[in-house]
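Forwarding the complex inputs:
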Amino acid sequence: MQRKGSALSGMSTIAWKEAADHFSSARFHFVMLLVLLTAFGGVYGAIGEIKNTIGQDPFLFLRLLTTSKQPVPSFVAFLGFMLPLVSIALAFDGINGEYGRRTMSRILSQPIYRDALLFGKFVGGMIVLTISLLTLWLLVTGLGILTLGLPPSGEEIARGLCFLVACLAYAGVWLALSLFLSTVFRQAATSALAALALWLVFSIFWGMIAHALTAALAPIDPTDPMTLVNAVEWQTGLARLSPNTLFSETASALLNPQTRSLGLVFINQLEGAIPGAPLPFSQSALLVWPQLSGMVAAMLLIFTAAYVTFQRQEVRA
Amino acid sequence: MSDIVIEARGLTKRYGGTIAVDGLDLNIEAGEVFGLLGPNGSGKTTTILMLLGLTEPSSGTVSVLGHNPLREPLMVKREVGYLPDAIGFYDQLTARENLRYTAKLSGIPAAEREKRIGEALQRVRLAHVADRRVKTFSRGMRQRLGLAELVAKGSRIAILDEPTSGLDPQSTQELLELIASFAGEGMTVLLSSHLLAMVQSVCDRVALFRDGKAGLIGTVPEIAGKVLGGVYVIDVEAEGADAKSAVSGIEGVRGVTPRKGGGIQIDADRDLRGEVAAAIVAAGGRLKGLSMSQSSLDDVYVRYFRTQEMADAA
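Prediction (whole assembly, two chains):
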């Protein structure tokens, strides 16, 4: 049956209202404060390290993001860990919160489709993430200019912007996931816990799980070197099911121009290559293309699941 | 015959094996106040959600102002305002901001928006707290804010689900006066309730719901006539004569029942006080008291559901 009228009417109203709500909510302030503190910790540690090796590296600005000084992890590692938390804080009560406040039926009785509500919630979250990440990126760049006394090169800016897009795709996966959980569970506390559990699994335990699964699925036979290759491929394949793996691979390829491959490299493939020579930006972009599309695809897939669940839901609690 | 604004034919909703609404037929005319009356769980809210297109009927058709709520939900929702049971607002926003949000969603042009919101708040007497957060509002104020939303939207039909549940008598009275004034301005009002006195005071017609069926539909006197057998109830106190036999011969008397404390109660088709007094005096009795009350919906309700239960048990 064909519906009349646009599914998107009212969406921008909802998106901007959601964004405004997030920016004024104590929860979001708290999470962003945490992100800012850790980000500055990471960058500050990196500055100390870089000062020792200044003049040996054409990509100083990128080092700012990727260098770590024990025991503080790098800025990129922090983002990989903290961004899901920001997304979860933005969306874990997106849909079930409307039921909890009893505003759902009132909003849906306005001349909008349900689609607009869900799209609006997602877009509102993405607006907040975009503004926050852009601010963070500019702050870090500014800090770099102040402390290193050098402006970033054009290529560094291009790589940095590309990295920003990757951050958004990664945060979008988690935003869609927590929005999905908020449609599935009627209690905000349940969806928050479920989202946090998945966050822990993917950011801490997934590597171990992938390792254990590989041992079971592709056992290594010491007499046959191909089984070793096979096992490594299984392990990277499994690890890439986690958006965190995809994100860290993307970050390392974009921010370390020396990265030539994100998988196995055989000696014969390195023939004629100059070790340690950086790749041009276009080649690095090509390298992360699958990772980036993987994250976008995961985001769309999870959002579709949320959409289907939400459309089938009864409005009355 | 006036225009039919809401029409339902054979409306049915099943949740799994249970039937929430069972073959409902409903015609609601423009400008009337229509009450859906029934105990909790009798299918009133489900019916309302189907009229709004928020729930898909299992079978049957609905037409609201000539639009199908499933096919053209935006057209229907633009004209219909809904005040849900236990209404919620965004607590951290002010009354005005809450209305502004829904006004934007309902596509009211920006030029008109603020003026209409101001007028609506004035109308429900919330103008003095317009810029306070809804967090601080009492239940009665929230319900009135809900009505302000309908006014700001300019709804032609208002659907109110249990608008007075949980309110104190004064707030209830205020709310009912507001609802009655909306109806006076040509808004069609559909309200559901299990509070009978309230329905009786504002509704032109009511439908009695039971187990998802509208058992009886009509004006309050019509329904009372059908269920109780009489529209008017006359209480008589008399001495010195057999009042029961004296009045039972009068034309228009449907039934006579003795009361506790000596009097009798007469169910009648019309106002028979004069005839009753004359009959008792003619029989040699002394009339000590004579009063008439229109049968209240409470009587109808209790009687109707009791007879239904007895019919079910038999």
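Chain A has a mean pLDDT of 90.
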